[in-house]
Amino acid sequence: LWRLRFCTGLINRCRRHPGLALFTIAFLVRVAFIMALGPTALPSQRAAEQAYDRFAYHLVSQHEYINTQYPPGYPLFLALNYAVFGRSWFLARIVQALIGAATCVLLYRLGARVFTKPVGLLAGILLAFYPGHVFFSSWRLMAEPLFILLLIGSLLLALALAENPTPLRAFALGALVGLAHLVKSFIFLFPALLVVLFVFAARGNGNQRVLCVGAWSIGLGVTVLIQSVTNFLSPSHEFHLLPNNGGVTLWVSNNPDSV
């Protein structure tokens, strides 16, 4: 009898708080994946994992930023993990599992806002168990999970801004898109699309729109400037708005013949 009551109570809680239930399930799936593959395993030698690890640890241990090839967002994020928890790949993976679970909740809210609540919940559940996202957001030390979280968050905020344009919300959207740019530089064309969306879909009068575009530009510019500052503080003392691989990444990610 107590098992039946427990299951009934658990189902009722999930119905009342679907976002929390989705987050818990997605996080537990990712933790189980971490434990299965080895929580303290070395970063993969494929892709940029070892480079991210080296950049982050050098920044924490030697207080010197040596990365000019990749965008600074993920190395700085990984360095923050190392500064708080030490050079623990296990805890870094746990933090990424939290990011992956939060992404499932944001996708649920985005689907519920654009379509219906059941559609959003289904999308969140599918992402919670999607093998590719589970793999990247739990075990690989890569920038993709953080980028996807920021991208979906910016889409949610863009919809909210279109419905109720305020300068503070516009500034937050610009900063969020700027942070996404710092994680994956090929997003630098995305802000132009957001401006078009805002101009044609936003409510409010002309003055509100002008203020929002100004606040959005300031938020975007302040965060994107971090790219130039980090490059200038590196030993090469370069000063540009994109990382060295920005153009190559944009070309490769949009041209199937580039391989």
Task: Give a written overview of the molecule.
- The chain is mainly alpha-helical and 259 residues long.
- Helices cover 75% and strands 0% of the residues.
- It is built from 12 helices and no strands.
- α8 packs antiparallel against α9 (167-183).
- The protein is globular, with a radius of gyration of 20 Å.
- The model has no long low-confidence stretch (mean pLDDT 83).
Summarize it.
The protein has 259 residues and is mainly α. It is 75% helix and 0% strand.
* Rg value: 20 Å
Question: Outline, from the CA principal axes?
Answer: globular
Helix and strand pattern: HHHHHHHHHHHH
Poorly predicted parts = none
Our count of helices gives 12
Number of strands: 0
Structural class: mainly alpha
Mean pLDDT: 83
- End-to-end separation in angstroms reads 61 Å
Strand content: under 5%
Tell me the major beta sheet.
none
> What level of helicity do the residues show?
over 70%
Topology:
Blueprint: H1 2-16, H2 18-37, H3 49-62, H4 73-85, H5 89-114, H6 117-129, H7 131-138, H8 144-163, H9 167-183, H10 190-201, H11 206-233, H12 246-254
Helix pairs in contact: 1-2, 2-5, 2-6, 2-7, 3-4, 5-6, 5-7, 5-8, 8-9, 8-10, 9-11
